[in-house]
């Protein structure tokens, strides 16, 4: 209900009416080195389905923080995860945030940002900020819905990922998710 309400207020920023499934959470967090990462960041967590999965996978020594732009979602998540540092900021500010957290770079970034809703200039700005903060060899995972594959902004995000990252792998479609989705897993 929370995502649906926020979607009505801000369809571009939220990008979906339904939380992701546990199937998508597993695909988003598998084979990206979370188990051995020293520094992990999640951006655009929404309902927190991926946050819970990340917390299950990282070690107690890993440094982890979350960035959520929507103030009401931020408040809800701060109550749900009192032991996790959650910034009410845009992911564009990641370079400043990692300095605040005394991190040199981030080994794994898990993103739920609704790329297909964003104009190319914003896609560029966000991707620059993310890429800049990542460790060389670090991993980035992000998902899209199958219908986004045929949309021009879906093409532009794929092109952008391929132009920046050393490798970009695309998962099988997660049909159990509503809407069905796929994951891009990238290595810097
Ligand atoms: C598609 S929803 C996330 C859905 C999530 N996977 C779930 O299961 O609930 C996108 C989220 O990204 C957040 N967001 C949008 N733009 C952002 C930005 N620039 N920085 C950080 N978070 C942002 C939205 O507020 C929203 O919570």
Could you explain how this protein is built, in words?
It contains 8 helices and 7 strands; from the N terminus they run H-H-H-E-H-E-H-E-H-E-H-E-H-E-E. With 188 residues, it is an alpha/beta fold. The protein has a 7-stranded mixed beta sheet with strand order 3-2-1-4-5-7-6, sandwiched between helices. The radius of gyration is 15 Å and the shape is globular. The relative contact order is 0.17. The mean pLDDT is 95. The site of S-adenosylmethionine has 23 residues, from helix 2 and helix 4.
CATH topology: Rossmann fold
* Annotation field: number of helices: 8
- SSE order: HHHEHEHEHEHEHEE
Shape label: globular
Roughly what is the average pLDDT, rounded to an integer?
A: 95
CATH superfamily: Vaccinia Virus protein VP39
What is the first-to-last residue Cα distance? 36 Å
Overall radius of gyration: 15 Å
Provide the domain count. Answer: 1
Helical proportion, percent range:
25-40%
* Strand fraction: 15-25%
Q: What strand line-up does the widest sheet have?
A: 3-2-1-4-5-7-6
**Bound small molecules, which ones?**
S-adenosylmethionine
| Major sheet summary line | 7 strands, mixed
Low-confidence stretches are: none
């Amino acid at each position: 209900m929370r995502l649906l309400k926020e979607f009505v207020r801000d369809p571009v920023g939220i990008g979906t009416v339904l939380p992701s499934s546990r199937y998508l959470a597993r695909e988003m967090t598998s084979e990206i080195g979370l188990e051995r990462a020293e520094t992990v960041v999640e951006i655009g967590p929404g309902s927190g389905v991926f946050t819970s999965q990340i917390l299950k996978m990282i070690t107690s020594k890993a440094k982890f923080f979350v960035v959520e732009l929507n103030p009401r979602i931020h408040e809800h998540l701060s109550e749900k995860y009192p032991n996790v540092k959650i910034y009410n900021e845009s992911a564009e500010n990641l370079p400043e945030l990692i300095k605040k957290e005394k991190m040199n770079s981030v080994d794994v970034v898990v993103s739920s940002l609704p790329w297909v809703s964003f104009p190319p200039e914003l896609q560029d700005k966000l991707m620059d900020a993310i890429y800049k903060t990542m460790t060389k060899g670090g991993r980035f995972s992000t998902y899209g819905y199958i219908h986004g594959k045929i949309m021009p902004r879906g093409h532009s995000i794929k092109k952008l990922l391929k132009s920046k990252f050393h490798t970009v792998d695309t998962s099988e479609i997660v049909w159990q998710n509503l809407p069905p989705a796929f994951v891009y897993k990238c290595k810097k």
